[in-house]
Design goal:
single chain, 81 residues, mainly alpha
Amino acid sequence: GLNNSITKTADNIAEKGYRVIIPDLYRGKVAKDADEASHQLKGLDWVQAIKDIRGAVKYLKTNGCDKVAVIGFCMGGALVI
């Protein structure tokens, strides 16, 4: 989920002059520990997650971004591929 680490990373990228958007693939849920994170991952709707990412890309492109990059960490990295 969108925890402090993810939002800080996004803020750091934005501070370098990039536009940043973070789709909330877990719909507001943030795991408190590794077991909860594992449980949430097993319940993730991967098809919807990919649609959410594509929607974010489309939003950026229709709002002035000529180039868009997608970055993911761990599970997000799998979605990027």
